[in-house]
Design a protein that fits this description.
The complex is a heterotrimer of chains A (171), B (434) and C (793). By secondary structure, chain A is an alpha+beta fold. Chain A has a domain of 102 residues: 3-Layer(aba) Sandwich (Glutaredoxin). Helix content of chain A is 32%, strand content 12%. Chain A is built from five helices and five strands; from the N terminus they run H-E-H-E-E-E-E-H-H-H. In chain A, strands 2-3-1-4-5 form a five-stranded mixed β-sheet, with helices on both faces. In chain A, strand 4 and strand 5 form a beta hairpin. In chain A, helix 2 crosses helix 3. With 434 residues, chain B is of the alpha/beta class. Chain B has three domains: 206 residues, Rossmann fold (3-Layer(aba) Sandwich); 83 residues, Ubiquitin-like (UB roll) (Roll); 109 residues, Up-down Bundle (de novo design (two linked rop proteins)), CATH 1.20.1440.230. Chain B starts with 18 loop residues before the first helix and ends in a 15-residue tail after the last helix. Chain C is built from 26 helices and 37 strands. The chains are: A alpha+beta (171), B alpha/beta (434), C alpha/beta (793). Chains in contact: A-B, A-C, B-C.
Chain lengths: 171, 434, 793
C-alpha cells in the first residue's frame, strides 16, 4: 500500500485543503508564461510547491504537462482546466474562489472542490458530463480553417462490409 | 496539402459527445458492420489499412492485434492507453472530450476483433473532464445495448471499464500501465513475455492509443481504400495534429500524414509577431528537435525518421527565437527526472545527474568539459535503460547541442535568463520586453 | 546409518541443448539458460547487482549489459535467454558492452556515499569490487549527492542505509518471492526510490537476515554486526546450523576467538543460499553462561575440580551403576556424541535405558522411529519436496519448526506443488505455502487422516507425493500409526521432521532403547554381532532391551537407578518435567555433560563442560537423514565434545569408548548400512477425544529457547504472544480481548486473536514470553484446557 501510494503524485498523504491549484511548469507552458503564472500565484498565496495555505483554502503544486499545450499556459483548479491563463487572470480565479463566487472551468464544469474531484477520480465518473463546454475555439481551429478554405476529407464511400476471411487468406 | 477533418469533423456540434449526437453523424454504423463480419476479417481490414499506432512508436496496429493467440482459452483484454502525458502531446484528451463515442465505438470493434470481452480505458487522473466524458459515453452506449451482453444481437459480450490514473508519466509505457491497472506501482515489466501473450492479469492483451482506436470506426465504415487515400504508403491515413507554441492560432488541425510543418504553420496563422521559428519538435519532448530548415519535410513516420527525429505523437511544439534552448532542455530533463520510475540505473541516476549539470548551465555555471560530459551521459542512457523513458530523457540534449552549441557555450558564463529575457517568450500582454 | 548414504535421486540430464557462442567460445547449454549463467560456465564474469540466481530476473540495474549479434541495443545478460546460434559479446570482446557496463557503474556511484571505510560491506562489497574492475578512477560527478537520514530500522534487527542502496530490489524480491513476507518494498520513485516498510509494520520476517547477505552494497546491515569488524579481519569456517533439523550450511566468521557473525552458505541441495534469522543471529549463547571446568559435588556444593578428579569421580559412580544406569542424551547431539552415549550405555554401563527425546514423546513414537526412520537411507529430500505433486503436513508447522523446509515447500508451491496441512487452522506460514487445510482439532489426527478426502488420497498415490509428520504427533495416540498406515496404503513417501538438530542424529546413532546404530534392532543377533565386533566386546555383553521415554523417567523418578548420565537436557523441555525433577532430587547419582549451567547440572554430582558447535567438529543428520558434517571453529577451545568426555570416563573405567570424531566416523563407516530386518511397529489405536476446549501449540521459531538467549535484537522480531481461537469459541466462552487459560500447573492470560480455526480449540505458543505452557499450565498439545474471559497478560 505504501509502495503504491508513494509512487503516484496524485495520492496526497497530507491534507490538501479546499482547492488544489496546479500550474504547469513543464517546458512549453513555462516558457509561454507558466513560470510567471506560478510565481504570481505563489506570491499571492504565500506558499510554495506542494504547500497548503494556512487557511486550508488552497494547495499549490507545480504540475507536469496536462495535455493542453495548445492552451498554454495552463492552470488547473481541482484538476479542471483553466486554459490560457495570465498572472492576472490566474490570481483573479483564486480571488473569486476565495470569495465563494461561481467559477467555471474553461473546458469543463463548474469548479467544485478538491474532494469532489477526488471522488470523480475514484469512481472514474460523475454526473457532470453535460455541464459546461468541453470544446473551444482552439480545438476547432483546424475545422474552422478548413471551413474557411473549403477543405474536407474525401467523400465517404458507400458502406463496405469486410468479407469474412477464408482459410486461404490466412498466414 | 489540405486539411482533412475526420475524427474532428463534427466537433462543432455541441451534442457530438452524446450518443444521439454521434449517431446523427453516422456513429456506430461501423460497429454494426463489424459485428456482421467476423473478427479475423476486421483484423485483416485494419492490417490492410496500414494504420500505425498514434501513441508515438507507430507500430502497425493490425499486426499488433494479430499477435494475440486465438482460441487459447484465456480471457483477452483490450487496454486503451489514454495516459496522454508526453510534454507537447495534447490530442487524445481533446478527442476524448469532444468525440468520446469514436473511442468507445473503436473499443467495441477492436475488442470484437481480438476476441476480448473486457476492455479498459486507462485515462490519466489529472484530466477528470476527459474521464467523465468517456465514462458518460460508455454509460450511454451500455444503456443503448452497445456494451454488455449480446451486442446488437451478435452474441458478442463486452464490458468496458474506465480507470483513472494517479499521476505518473511512466504509466504511458504499456507494461507499466498494466502494472498500474492491476494496482501496483507503475514500473515497466520485463519483456518477454509481451503483452500480446501475457499482459493484463497474465492474459493476452492489446494496448492501443486513444487516437489509434478512434480511427477504427472510420476505417471499418469507409474502407481501406478510402483510408489509404490519405498519407503515404508507409504512413497511410490522417492524423490529429495539435500545434502548440509560438504560433498565432495554436490548436487541433487534422490533416493527412505527409503534410509539412510549414503547411501546418500556415494553417495555424503563422508565427506569433512574425518571429522566426527557432526549433520545433514533431511529436512530444521525447523526439529530437528540428529547426526552421526542416519545415518542408513531410510529417510521416518514415520522413521524420530520415530527418533524425520521429513523428512521435504528431503534436508539434513550435518555439520562436525568444526561447533559450538551454532552458527548454533543462526543464524537460527536470520532467524526466521527476517521472523516472526508479527501476533502472541509467534512467534513475542519469536523469538525476544530467538535470543537475543542466541546472548549472541554466545559471551560467556550465563548463566546456561538461558540454562533453552531458553527451557521454546521454549516450550512457540511450539504448541502455529498461524502457523508452530513459531513451526519451537522453534525447533533448544531443539534439539541442547539434543545432545550438553556441547557447551551451554561452551558458558556461552567462545565465540564460540574461541572454534570453523570459518575458519575451510569454504569450500574454506582459511580454512587453519582446 | 545414513552416513553411508545411498544415492537415491537421479541426476537430470538436459536434453534440450542450444549452441551459443560467448566471446568466441562455442558451447552448448540447456535451452532457457540465461546468458549470464552460460557465461559463468566458461569463467566469464559479467558484472551484476540485481541478478541473483534464485530470484526472478528483473534486469533493473543494467550492469550486465552485453552485445548480442543481431540485436540493436545492448541486452541485459541476466534476463536474456540463450537461443540457438546466438553470438554473445561480453565486455571482453565488445566495446559497446564494456562502455555500457562502465556507464552503468558510473551512474551507480553518482549517489553512492564514499563511506566505504566505515561500511560493514567494505572489503566484501560487490559494488566496491566491480567499481574497481569496471569503474572510472575519478568521478566526473560534482553535483550534490542525494542524501537520506541514515540509517533507519526496518526491523529491530535490520538497519537500512538508503544512501548506499542501488535499488537492485534483491531484498524486496527475496521478501516477496522467497520468504513470502513482502513487508519491505520499494517506495517513492525515480531518484527518491527507496526501500522501506509501511508505518508501524516492521520487516519482522523469520528470514530477514538473508537480505543483508544478498544486498550487493552496504545498504542493509544488522544491529548485531554493525561496526563490529572488517570482513578481511575475519576467519571463516564452513559450519552447519545447530538450531534445527533443516541442516543449513553456514559460514561462521570469527575474530580473536569470538564469533562475529554467521552467514548462510551455498548448498543447492539443502538450504540453497538461505537460512533463517535464528540460525543467522542466535549464537551468543555459545559464549555466555558457559561451564568452563569440571565440577564435583562436595559437602552438597559443586566446586571446580581437575579433570582427573572429576573423571575419577564419575568413573566411580558408573562402576557402581553397571547394569542399573539410565542415559538421557538430549536432542542437540551430533551423531558422534550420541554414538558415544550409545556405546557408553550398552558397552560400559551395560544398560539399554537410553533416550534422546526431551519433549512430548510416546512408546508409539519410539516404535515408529525404530521401524520406519532409524538408519533409513536418504530418499526423500528437499529436491523431492520441490518436485512433489502433493505434500501432506501432519502436526508440523514448517515455518516455525523447520524454516528451510518451509522455504522449499513455498518454492514448491509456487511451482505447482499442492500443500495440504492437517492442523487446527491455516497459519500465515500455511498461507505462504498456499496450503489447503484439513481442519483437525489436536488429538483428532487419526480421524482426520482416516477420513481424508478421496481427492487427497488419490493425489497421495501419485509417485513423488510426500507425507511429513512432526514431533507433536507423539502427543496424539495413534497418530504415528495412522500416518504410517496412510503412507503404506497410498504409496506416498513418509518423512519424520523433528525440530531439533540432534534428534535424527541420536536416533541413527542408536541412542534409543532397543536400537543399535544404523537402525539395528538390539534384539537381532546379527546386528548384535556386527556392533559388538566394532565395539570390541562380545555380543553377549550387550544388554537386553531396556526402557525409554516415560518408563525411563518413571524409573528415574522412583530413584531406582544407581546413576544417570545426562547430556544437554533442559528439564522444562520435558512434558514430564516433574519426573526428571524427582530423579534429580533422589539419591541417584547424576553425571552431567553440559555446555551451560541448568537445572540438571545444579543437581548433578559431577559436571563436565561440553563444547558447543564451534568448539568441536561433528555431524548432524538433517530431517532428510543427510549428513551435515561441520568443522571445528576454535581449535584452542578448553572444552571437548561429549564423546571426548565419555571416552575419558570410560578410559578410567578400563573400558574403551571411541571419543574422536574420526574414530567414530570410522566405526560407523565400518558398520555400514543395516540390511537386515527392522523392528516392526505396533499399531496403536486412537483414543476417544476428551470433551472440552483443547490446546493446540508449538514452539515458534523465535521464542525463549535457550540457544536464543542474549539476542535482544533477534528477540524483538519475534511474533507477539497471542491466544488464537475461533470467533465461535470466543463467543461461547464470553471472551473478547483477553483470555485466561488454566491447567493443573497454573494459568496464563493472553491477548486474543480471533482466527478462522476449528471450534473448541485454543492455540498458544509453547515457549514464548508469557506462554510457557508445560511449566505455566502443566499441559501439552491436545490436552483439555480451561478457558475464560479476562485476566491480565
Amino acid at each position: 500500500m505504501t509502495a503504491v501510494a508513494t509512487f503516484y503524485t496524485m495520492y496526497k498523504r497530507r491534507p490538501v485543503g479546499k482547492h488544489h491549484i496546479g500550474v504547469c511548469t513543464n517546458t512549453l507552458c513555462a516558457l509561454l508564461g507558466g513560470d510567471a503564472v506560478y510565481d504570481a500565484i505563489a506570491e499571492h498565496l504565500g506558499v510554495g510547491h506542494n504547500e497548503p495555505t494556512a487557511d486550508g483554502e488552497f494547495f499549490l503544486e507545480r504540475i507536469e504537462c496536462q495535455a493542453a499545450c495548445t492552451h498554454a499556459p495552463v492552470m488547473t483548479v481541482d484538476w479542471e482546466f483553466m486554459d490560457d491563463v495570465t498572472p492576472t487572470t490566474a490570481v483573479d480565479v483564486l480571488d473569486r474562489l476565495e470569495r465563494g463566487e461561481e467559477v467555471w472551468s474553461t473546458r469543463g464544469p463548474r469548479i467544485r472542490n478538491f474532494d469532489a474531484t477526488e471522488r470523480t477520480l475514484a469512481f472514474a465518473s460523475d454526473d457532470l458530463a453535460t455541464e459546461g463546454n468541453s470544446v473551444d475555439a482552439k480545438m476547432l481551429a483546424g475545422l474552422t480553417v478548413a471551413a474557411e478554405l473549403g477543405m474536407s476529407a474525401p467523400a465517404i464511400p458507400a458502406p463496405s462490409i469486410p468479407a469474412p476471411s477464408s482459410p486461404a487468406q490466412e498466414n | 496539402m489540405t486539411l482533412t477533418p475526420v475524427i474532428t469533423e463534427h466537433w462543432n456540434d455541441p451534442t457530438l459527445y452524446t450518443l444521439d449526437g454521434y449517431r446523427s453523424h453516422g456513429g456506430y454504423r461501423a460497429l454494426a458492420t463489424a459485428l456482421k463480419s467476423d473478427p479475423d476479417a476486421v483484423i485483416a481490414t485494419v492490417k490492410d489499412s496500414g494504420l500505425r499506432g498514434r501513441g508515438g512508436a507507430g507500430f502497425p496496429t493490425g499486426l499488433k492485434w494479430s499477435f494475440v493467440p486465438q482460441n487459447d482459452g484465456k480471457p483477452h483484454y483490450l487496454v486503451v492507453n489514454a495516459d496522454e502525458s508526453e510534454p507537447g502531446a495534447c490530442k487524445d484528451i481533446p478527442i476524448m472530450m469532444a468525440n468520446p463515442h469514436a473511442l468507445v465505438e473503436g473499443v467495441i470493434i477492436t475488442s470484437f476483433a481480438i476476441r476480448a470481452n473486457h476492455a479498459f480505458i486507462y485515462i490519466r487522473g489529472e484530466v477528470p473532464n476527459a474521464i467523465r466524458k468517456v465514462a458518460f459515453a460508455v454509460e450511454q452506449a451500455r444503456a443503448a445495448g452497445l456494451i454488455g451482453k449480446n451486442i446488437l444481437g451478435s452474441g458478442f459480450d463486452l464490458e468496458i471499464v474506465v480507470h483513472s490514473g494517479a499521476g505518473a508519466y511512466i504509466c504511458g509505457e504499456e507494461t507499466a500501465l498494466l502494472d498500474s491497472l492491476e494496482g501496483y506501482r507503475g514500473q515497466p515489466r520485463l519483456k518477454p513475455p509481451f503483452p500480446a501473450v501475457a499482459g493484463l492479469y497474465a492474459s493476452p492483451t492489446v494496448i492501443n492509443n486513444v487516437e489509434t482506436i478512434a480511427n477504427i470506426p472510420y476505417i471499418i465504415d469507409r474502407g481501406v481504400d478510402w483510408f489509404r487515400q490519405f498519407g503515404t504508403e508507409k504512413s497511410p491515413g490522417f492524423k490529429v495534429f495539435a500545434v502548440s507554441g509560438h504560433v498565432n492560432r495554436p490548436g487541433i488541425y487534422e490533416a493527412p500524414l505527409g503534410i509539412t510543418m510549414r503547411e501546418l504553420l500556415e494553417y495555424a496563422g503563422g508565427m506569433r509577431g512574425g518571429v522566426d521559428v527557432k526549433f520545433w519538435l514533431p511529436g512530444g519532448s521525447s523526439v529530437p528537435m528540428l529547426t526552421a530548415e526542416h519545415l518542408d519535410i513531410p510529417m510521416t513516420y518514415e520522413d521524420m525518421a530520415a530527418a533524425g527525429t520521429m513523428l512521435g505523437t504528431g503534436t508539434p511544439m513550435v518555439f520562436d527565437s525568444t526561447v533559450s534552448v538551454v532552458k527548454a532542455v533543462t526543464r524537460w530533463l527536470e520532467f524526466y527526472k521527476h517521472e523516472s520510475c526508479g527501476k533502472c540505473t541509467p534512467c534513475r541516476e542519469g536523469t538525476y545527474w544530467i538535470t543537475g549539470v543542466l541546472e548549472k548551465f541554466e545559471h551560467g555555471h556550465g563548463s566546456q568539459e561538461e558540454v562533453e560530459t552531458l553527451t557521454h551521459l546521454c549516450n550512457q542512457i540511450a539504448g541502455r535503460s529498461f524502457c523508452a523513458l530513459g531513451d526519451a530523457a537522453a534525447t533533448p540534449y544531443p539534439a539541442a547541442l547539434k543545432y545550438f552549441r553556441d547557447e551551451f557555450d554561452a551558458a558556461t558564463h552567462t545565465p540564460v535568463d540574461e541572454t534570453f529575457d523570459p518575458r519575451a517568450s510569454y504569450v500574454f500582454a506582459e511580454a512587453a520586453a519582446r | 546409518m545414513t552416513i553411508t548414504n545411498e544415492p537415491g535421486a537421479q541426476v537430470a540430464v538436459p536434453t534440450d541443448l542450444v549452441n551459443v557462442t560467448i566471446d568466441g567460445v562455442e558451447m552448448q547449454v540447456p535451452k532457457g539458460t540465461l546468458v549470464i549463467r552460460a557465461a559463468e560456465l566458461i569463467g566469464i564474469e559479467i558484472p551484476r547487482f540485481c541478478d541473483h540466481p534464485l530470484l526472478d530476473p528483473v534486469a533493473a540495474c543494467r550492469a550486465c549489459l552485453i552485445e548480442v549479434d543481431g540485436m540493436p541495443k545492448p541486452q541485459p545478460a541476466c534476463a536474456q535467454m540463450v537461443a540457438e546460434g546466438m553470438n554473445v559479446h561480453t565486455q571482453h570482446s565488445s566495446q559497446v558492452a564494456a562502455e555500457a557496463q562502465a556507464g552503468v557503474m558510473e551512474f551507480l556511484l553518482v549517489n553512492h556515499p564514499l563511506d566505504c571505510p566505515v561500511c560493514d560491506k567494505g572489503g566484501e562489497c560487490p559494488l566496491q569490487n566491480q567499481a574497481m574492475s569496471v569503474g572510472r578512477p575519478e568521478t566526473r560527478f560534482t553535483e550534490e549527492k542525494r542524501t537520506f537520514p541514515k540509517p533507519i530500522n526496518v526491523s529491530a534487527q535490520i538497519l537500512l542505509d538508503r544512501e548506499r542502496c542501488v535499488s537492485c530490489a534483491r531484498c524486496t524480491r527475496f521478501a516477496e518471492q522467497i520468504a513470502g513476507d513482502p513487508m519491505i518494498e520499494l517506495l517513492e520513485r525515480g531518484a527518491q526510490q527507496q526501500v522501506g516498510t509501511a508505518d508501524d509494520e516492521p520487516f519482522d520476517s523469520y528470514f530477514s537476515g538473508n537480505t543483508i547477505q544478498i544486498c550487493p552494497v552496504g545498504a542493509l546491515t544488522s544491529a548485531d554486526y554493525r561496526f563490529r569488524s572488517r570482513p578481511f579481519d575475519l576467519v571463516s569456517v564452513p559450519t552447519t546450523c545447530e538450531h534445527c533439523a533443516s541442516g543449513c550450511s553456514l559460514r561462521t566468521d570469527y575474530r580473536r576467538g569470538v564469533v562475529t557473525r554467521r552467514l548462510a552458505w551455498d548448498d543447492p541441495e539443502v538450504n540453497e543460499e538461505w537460512n533463517c534469522d535464528k540460525g543467522r543471529f542466535a549464537f551468543r549463547y555459545q559464549s555466555h553462561g558457559r561451564i568452563n571446568a569440571p565440577l564435583v559435588r562436595e559437602n552438597g556444593e559443586l566446586r571446580v575440580a581437575s579433570w582427573p578428579e572429576a573423571l575419577a569421580t564419575a568413573a566411580g559412580i558408573f562402576e557402581a551403576a553397571r547394569g542399573n544406569a539410565g542415559v538421557l542424551v538430549g536432542g542437540r547431539s551430533t551423531v558422534e556424541d550420541a554414538y558415544a552415549y550409545s556405546v557408553m550405555a550398552r558397552a560400559v554401563l551395560a544398560t539399554d535405558d537410553i533416550d534422546f527425546r526431551v519433549r512430548a514423546m510416546s512408546d508409539e513414537e519410539a516404535g515408529f522411529l525404530a521401524a520406519v526412520v532409524a538408519g533409513s537411507p536418504v530418499t526423500t529430500t528437499y529436491g523431492s519436496l520441490e518436485n512433489a505433486p502433493l505434500v501432506l503436513l501432519v502436526d508440523i508447522e514448517p515455518e516455525d519448526e523447520s524454516p528451510i523446509v518451509f522455504l522449499r515447500l513455498r518454492k514448491a508451491a509456487r511451482g505447482g506443488t499442492r500443500v495440504v496441512t492437517v492442523a487446527s487452522h491455516l497459519t500465515t506460514g500455511s498461507e505462504k505455502m498456499n496450503a489447503e487445510l484439513v481442519a483437525c482439532a489436536p488429538g483428532d489426527e487419526v480421524r482426520a487422516l482416516t477420513e481424508l478426502s478421496a481427492d487427497i488420497r488419490t493425489a497421495l498415490a501419485v509417485p513423488g507425493a510426500v507425507i511429513m509428520v512432526g514431533e507433536r504427533a507423539a502427543a496424539v495416540p495413534g497418530a504415528f500409526t495412522a500416518v504410517a498406515d496412510l503412507a503404506k496404503s497410498t504409496g506416498a513417501a513418509l518423512v519424520w521432521v523433528p525440530r531439533r538438530a540432534g534428534e535424527r542424529s541420536a536416533l541413527d546413532a542408536g541412542a534409543l532403547a532397543g536400537l543399535l546404530p544404523g537402525g539395528r534392532p538390539l534384539t537381532d543377533a546379527t546386528a548384535r554381532e556386527e556392533v559388538a565386533r566394532i565395539w570390541g566386546i562380545s555380543a553377549d555383553r550387550l544388554p537386553q532391551p531396556g526402557r525409554s521415554g516415560r518408563a525411563l523417567l518413571e524409573n528415574a523418578a522412583r530413584g531406582d537407578y544407581a546413576a544417570l548420565l545426562i547430556g544437554g537436557v533442559e528439564v522444562d523441555d520435558l512434558r514430564d518435567a516433574d519426573l526428571l525433577r524427582a530423579a534429580l532430587e533422589s539419591e541417584t547419582s547424576v553425571v552431567a555433560i553440559s555446555t551451560h549451567h541448568n537445572e540438571v547440572t545444579a543437581a548433578a554430582d559431577v559436571v563436565f563442560p561440553s563444547g558447543v558447535v564451534t568448539e568441536k567438529s561433528g555431524t548432524f543428520l538433517d530431517w532428510e537423514g543427510r549428513p551435515r558434517p561441520f568443522g571445528q571453529v576454535f581449535h584452542e577451545a578448553l572444552t571437548t565434545s561429549d564423546a571426548g568426555v565419555i571416552s575419558a570416563i570410560a578410559e578410567v573405567m578400563d573400558a574403551t569408548v571411541e571419543g574422536s570424531v574420526t574414530g567414530i566416523r570410522g566405526q560407523i563407516g565400518a558398520l555400514g548400512p543395516w540390511r537386515g530386518a527392522r523392528t516392526t511397529r505396533t499399531a496403536v489405536a486412537a483414543q476417544p477425544a476428551a470433551a472440552g476446549v483443547r490446546l493446540a501449540t508449538w514452539r515458534q521459531l523465535l521464542d525463549l529457547g535457550l540457544m536464543q538467549s542474549d539476542e535482544p535484537h533477534l528477540a524483538a522480531t519475534a511474533r507477539p504472544t497471542v491466544a488464537r481461537m475461533s470467533a465461535a469459541t470466543a463467543a461461547a466462552n464470553g471472551i473478547t480481548e483477553i483470555a485466561t487459560l488454566t491447567g493443573p500447573a497454573g494459568a496464563i492470560s493472553l491477548p486474543v486473536e480471533i482466527t478462522e480455526m476449528v471450534p473448541d480449540v485454543v492455540w498458544v505458543p509453547m515457549n514464548s514470553e508469557g506462554s510457557r505452557i508445560y511449566r505455566d499450565l502443566g499441559l501439552g498439545f491436545g490436552d483439555v484446557v480451561q478457558i475464560s474471559a479476562g485476566g491480565r497478560p
